[in-house]
Amino acid sequence: MDYRPNALARSLKQKKTHTIAAVVSSILNPFMTNTIRGAEDYCKESGFNLVLCNADDDPKQELAYIHTLASKQIDGIIISTTGRNNEALQELKRNGTSVVLFSRHVPELEVDTITVDNRAGIEMGIRHLVANGHRNIAFFVLPYSEVPVTPRRDRAQAYREFMRQYDLPLREEWLVETSNEEAILSERLDQLLQGPGPKPTALFGVNDLMTMSLVRLLANRGIRIPQDMAVLGFDDWEWAPYLPTPITVVAQPCYDMGRRATERLVQRIQNNLKDVAPTLEYYEPTLIIRRSCGEIGEKN
Question: What are the structural domain ranges in the chain?
């Protein structure tokens, strides 16, 4: 008879909306897209609806979404937070809305967190570059000095640590704090390649958007990969294997991380973990070897 239950009436009676939200830092980031696929698949299997909010890594926009979601009595959120709205997230939790962080860890927030072992990933990348004859390695990272976003800070610290551990030259200008915005990245790349002193032979990008831009900028300058410059990225993306020189990457299991974050959230909502302390879960990254680092035995 084509009957459909009234979802609003049901939610008022059960005090549950069976709707959760995912607040992502940037929907343009392939890492986020694949993470949300995992979250969405788990929601379908569990009878939950998923609302997607793109905060654009803007603390004000993120806060506006948090307030909107709270007013709509959402059951819970998974969030890749800017780290600037911790009190609002704590208030959300105090009011009974479950919160799970993914990708980014905020020690001040006592909530479940699903992330990757950034330190292990950076070591994988540096060790691979060294094995292929590179010692002068530049690292391109988003601003981390004043921004409380753990992947950036953790990856920059790990770069310093493993450059020292492998007895590699560590020059301050080779740790390049920049933006994903290509015009700014282009300026920083020129400063690196045209400035005084030794030049790097390898570029390590902190995320997929950064690495994509580096590949384009090198091509625009007629710099060949890997003959003139090796490139390695943190995060994989769909067309990385299909470029003229396929790009070697340290990949995160983003789909699995999205599923796990959502699973943990649903368990909290259903009170299956009511008396269980929040956990910090690390996923292991994987080195996907292609041809962009001058890999031995591969054609350049």
Answer: 7-116+253-283, 118-252
